[in-house]
What we know:
Helix content: 55-70%
Mean pLDDT: 77
Oligomer: single chain
Strand content: 5-15%
Shape: elongated
Order of helices and strands: HEEEEHHHHH
Low-confidence stretches: none
Amino acid sequence: MSLQEASDARKARLIALRNRKEGISTVSNGDSVLLSRNYDPETRTLKKHSKNDVLTTDTVEKAIEGVAERIIAEDERQRAQELDVFNIAPKRPNWDLKREMEKKLAKLERKTQEAVHTLIRQRLASQKGQSDDILGAMNAQEKALDVEDQLSDDDE
């Protein structure tokens, strides 16, 4: 079907539609008028029928029929409520400060753990007498003296 033929067919459909709207019933060339019970040629959609065979149409107005009243009622309800300070204030007021501090505290926690491990290693090394720091050496020397005193007391 060429473009010209499609255009002519469309023009003929439009003229027939216009005549049907105006109530003029003319049948040209002996063609019968095609009646559709389920198809609406104006909107080019299917017609919807209820159980009573009454034609029902879906419109935007029907779809949003009670929406405006519900929105207005809800708005009035919200305005009727008193402004409460507890509704405005956040439930956890310091959550943002804690969030910002968590990064810094994580670094400090790691350094603290490293320091604790270092102190434990030094204490263990001082107990064995292998410490390099002065305090560890002094503690090791005191323990060595205590051990010698105990040995001398045992001898006597």
